[in-house]
Design a protein that fits this description.
TIM Barrel; eight-stranded parallel barrel; 8 strands
C-alpha cells in the first residue's frame, strides 16, 4: 500500500496532467446558432477552457459570439480559414484580432504573398493571436487532393505548405496527426501544431479521413487537439470531454 505522502504526490501528479490536458483540448462549437453554442459551453466550461468558433456558428451568430465567449474567460480559436487576395486577408486578420480570439486560421494554399501579408498585419499588435496556416484538411485524402490538381501525397503536400508558411514567418499550422511528427521537426519546439480529426478508439469517423486517437496525436507532437462531434454530439458532452481529457492526460 502507498504511504500517505506518496499517495498525495501521485494524486497531484494526476491532477497536474489533467490540468495540462485541459490547456490543450479545443472543443469545436459547430452549432447552428448562438443559443445552442452557449448551452454546450454551459455544460462544458467546468472542464474545457478552449472553444473553436468556425464557419457554421460565426455565420449564424456573427462576431459577437467571439466577444461573448472571450468575455466569459474562455480562450477562443477563430477558425474561419481565410483564403483571398493578400490585401483582403490582411484586413480580415486585423478585424478578427479586435474580437479577442487567441488563435485564427487561414489556408496555406492561399500562397506565400497571402501568408506574408497576414503575418505583416499583426506587426505591432501587442500580444497578437497565433496565426495558423491550414495545410491539408483532415477530410482530404490522396484522391481528394488529386481532384483539385495536387498530385502529391497528403504528407508531401502538407510539408510543402508548411515550409511555405515558415518562410512567410508563421509558426502555427493545422495538420492531421499523420503529419504532425514531420511538422514538429520542421517547426521545432516553438511550433504551434493544431490537430483536428481526433476520434476516440472505435468512434465514428464521419467525413474525416486522416484521423487518430487523442493519445496518438499528442505523442506524435501535437500542441493542441480539436475535437468536435465526439464531444458535441455525445449524449453527455461533459462526460465525453472528461474521457478524452483523461486519455490526453496519459500522453502529456
Ligand atoms: O466534428 P469533428 O471533430 O470532425 O470536427 C473537427 C473540427 O475541426 C471542425 O470544426 C472542422 O471545421 C475543423 N477542422 C478540420 N480539419 C482541418 C481544420 C479544421 O476538421 N484541417
Amino acid at each position: 500500500m502507498s504511504a500517505p505522502n506518496e499517495l498525495n504526490a501521485n494524486l497531484s501528479a494526476g491532477d497536474c496532467r489533467m490540468a495540462k490536458a485541459r490547456k490543450r483540448l479545443i472543443v469545436a462549437l459547430d452549432a447552428p446558432h448562438a443559443q445552442a453554442a452557449m448551452e454546450l459551453v454551459a455544460r462544458l466550461e467546468g472542464s474545457c477552457q478552449w472553444f473553436k468558433v468556425g464557419l457554421e456558428l460565426f455565420t449564424a451568430a456573427g462576431p459577437s459570439i467571439v466577444e461573448t465567449l472571450a468575455a466569459r474567460g474562455h480562450s477562443i480559436f477563430l477558425d474561419l480559414k481565410f483564403h483571398d487576395i493578400p490585401n483582403t486577408v490582411a484586413g480580415a486578420v486585423r478585424s478578427a484580432t479586435t474580437l479577442g480570439a487567441r488563435m485564427m486560421t487561414l489556408h496555406a494554399s492561399g500562397g506565400p504573398a497571402m501568408l506574408a501579408a497576414a503575418h505583416a498585419a499583426l506587426a505591432g499588435v501587442v500580444d497578437p493571436p497565433e496565426l495558423l496556416a491550414v495545410t491539408v484538411l483532415t477530410s482530404m485524402d490522396a484522391a481528394q487532393l488529386s481532384a483539385v490538381g495536387a498530385e502529391r501525397t497528403p504528407a508531401a503536400q502538407v510539408e510543402l505548405l508548411a515550409r511555405m508558411g515558415l518562410a512567410a514567418g508563421l509558426r502555427g499550422f493545422v495538420c492531421s496527426s499523420k503529419e504532425v511528427a514531420a511538422l514538429r521537426s520542421l517547426a521545432g519546439p516553438e511550433g504551434v501544431l493544431v490537430v483536428p480529426g481526433i476520434r476516440p478508439a472505435g468512434g465514428a469517423i464521419g467525413d474525416q479521413k486522416r484521423v487518430a486517437t487523442p493519445a496518438e496525436a499528442l505523442r506524435a507532437g501535437a500542441s493542441f487537439l480539436v475535437v468536435g462531434r465526439p464531444i458535441t454530439q455525445a449524449a453527455n458532452p461533459a462526460e465525453a470531454a472528461e474521457k478524452i481529457l483523461q486519455e490526453m492526460a496519459t500522453a502529456v
